[in-house]
Amino acid sequence: MSTLVVVGSQWGDEGKGKITDYMAQEADVVVRSQGGNNAGHTITFDGNKYALRSIPSGIFNPKIKNVMANGMVINPKQMLEELKGLEERGIKDYQLFISNRAHVVMPYHQELDGAYEQFKGDKKIGTTKRGIGPCYADKANRIGIRIGDLINPESFKLVLKDTLTIKNMELKMLGLEPFDFDKIYNEYVQYGQEIKKYVCDTSLLLEEEIEKGSKVLFEGAQGVMLCLDHGSYPYVTSSSPTGASVPLNAGVAPKYINNILGICKAYTTRVGEGPFPTELDGDLAHYIRERGHEYGTVTKRPRRVGYLDCVALNYARRISGINYLALMLFDVLSGLETLKICYAYEMDGKIINTVPATLEEYQNCKPLYIEMPGWEEDITNVTSFDELPLNAQNYIRKIEELTKTEIVLFSVGPDRKQTIKLKEFF
Ligand code: IMP
Q: HSE-up of 293 (CA within 13 Å, CB side)?
């Protein structure tokens, strides 16, 4: 039995797409279990760059079964466009399975996402405006539409009628235009028919695959610090990107989860609003942002940039049960004279080693740093740990020491080839 969960251990955008693609070379099944097209997983190989939103990263390999599981929220229109885009680029031979229990992101979700953000004014979350929060809210409120409904014209009609009555009242209350039932029904019923061939009970499929010994890779989206339960609430997404959420969101038993690989950048970034103790500004932030191409895959927003925060990383490790780390975008740090790593926070005169629960407390946290000498050398062609400059080796060792977790892989560039695996873990 071999399963591996890949989780983002910061605020998302850690390079999960690259690692999932890299690890997918060894996998039989790749599963997305939460989130939707708020994710943007960038994958580069053979000189081609692909940005996946809701499709799992195993899609490029015809032998891999790609699963979009029950915990996802799927925008069928966007997903079909994404598939079409891949097909136009020659990715035609793939295996895709969509859970009949996953929820459907409808156009009113997107409308409401934008409206809530606008009403919140300077307290806005900075969402991706893809309707993710309102869709998960409807799921919890039991007025959601599931893929199983969407593909059945009669069920879809019944569920949409009830839901749209409520959603239109909400839209009107907010001063927005209501949606026309026939228009929305006729458009979405069509999408349902187009995706029908991919839809099944993915929980059953996964059980069968795991039981027969297939290698299953669970591809996380976002990051632990954006977790609805454990992240920097309310500046979080609306699902749980932790290892613990995988069994629930994929419909597999917890006993099947062996290893959890935390993906972290060699520094920290965040998009959207919310606390970020190690945030940098000025020339240093600009240097890292430009070298790391730190602009959102989905929204193109410049990402906020900061030093590596090992308090947040340790928190993510503890909450998510991370037992290995992959260090990404390591090459970006070349050329910096000094590097800093945050090892603790100071909050109201006390030193703390964990992430506090409330926004007020977190905003009061000041980072405490250790300083380390940087390195000048370009490391983008390095192929082993020993080839790294000594200061870069020391940086890796220091992170391992601070997180008590082994770094099993590091990345020195966007290409698959620029990935150095230090140990087998899948
Ligand atoms: P939402 O998921 O669109 O509701 O956005 C909520 C918060 O999560 C915002 O701060 C977004 O910028 C952030 N977020 C959502 N998805 C991602 C992602 O894939 N990478 C990084 N941040 C994300």
A: 8
